User: Which sequence fits this backbone?
């Protein structure tokens, strides 16, 4: 069994990952780690994540207290906790799956560099279907990217903190790479005022409202026709299942920087 620690178990993703990992035949949970000062520190992980039963392991507020007992860490928490988790994982040479978003390019580079010393997998989105969509985007961009106008529209609930979403940024980076460019060179975030569309740009549009689930659509607009590639999530279980699959994969790898595409062999 792969001994696993969940960072941020009270969060939306943390709860689901814990619930799926608790029923896994390959993962065994050894601890949860929450922010300091929360009233649930010291409680059973199963109760904290509303699993409905005790798991026999506690939620602590210091990763170093429990990290020696684990094989892999799954972190879907906050930027601040994510960077601290990376630091500690490198110090103790533990595999890390991080799905937290909102990092700057410089902060994301720290995770890439982490792959020099630990098995490291960073993914803005761990859904299997989203990563298949990413592969389709690479194929479409290679075939028609130079002759179409590319726009990315993403929708999330009102509580989403970053815009565009990490998933949308990752999609744009894949598209820009296929166009032999960098995303900051091409990205246009929203539009107002007068003037035609800048040729070769990638337009971003972020919608935040109510409890709207995650939705991403990439448009390839030609003349007389339009291709749309979309992913719509009805709940978050697919993302959580994907995170657990990533942890199972990563526990058997040497130090290196991995992606969900590696897990799925895309």
Assistant:
């Amino acid at each position: 069994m792969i001994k696993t620690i969940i960072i941020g178990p009270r969060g939306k993703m943390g709860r689901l990952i814990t619930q799926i990992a608790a029923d896994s035949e390959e993962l065994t949970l050894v601890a949860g780690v929450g922010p300091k000062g929360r009233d649930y520190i010291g409680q059973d992980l199963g109760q904290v994540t509303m699993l409905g039963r005790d798991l026999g392991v506690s939620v602590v507020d210091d990763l170093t207290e429990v990290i020696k007992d684990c094989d892999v860490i799954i972190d879907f928490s906050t930027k601040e906790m994510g960077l601290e988790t990376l630091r500690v994982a490198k110090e103790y040479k533990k595999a890390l799956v991080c799905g937290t978003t909102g990092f700057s390019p410089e902060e994301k580079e720290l995770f890439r560099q982490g792959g020099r010393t630990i098995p490291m997998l960073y993914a803005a989105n761990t859904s299997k279907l989203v990563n298949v969509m990413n592969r389709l985007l690479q194929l479409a961009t290679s075939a028609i990217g130079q002759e179409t106008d590319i726009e990315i529209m993403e929708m999330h609930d009102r509580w989403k903190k970053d815009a565009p979403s990490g998933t949308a940024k990752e999609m744009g980076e894949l598209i820009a790479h296929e166009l032999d460019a960098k995303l900051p060179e091409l990205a246009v975030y929203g539009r107002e005022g007068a003037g035609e569309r800048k040729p070769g740009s990638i337009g971003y549009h972020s919608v935040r409202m109510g409890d709207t689930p995650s939705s991403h659509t990439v448009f390839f607009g030609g003349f007389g026709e339009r291709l749309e590639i979309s992913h719509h999530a009805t709940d978050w279980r697919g993302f959580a299942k994907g995170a657990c699959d990533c942890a199972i994969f990563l526990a058997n790898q040497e130090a290196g920087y991995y992606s969900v595409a590696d897990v799925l062999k895309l």
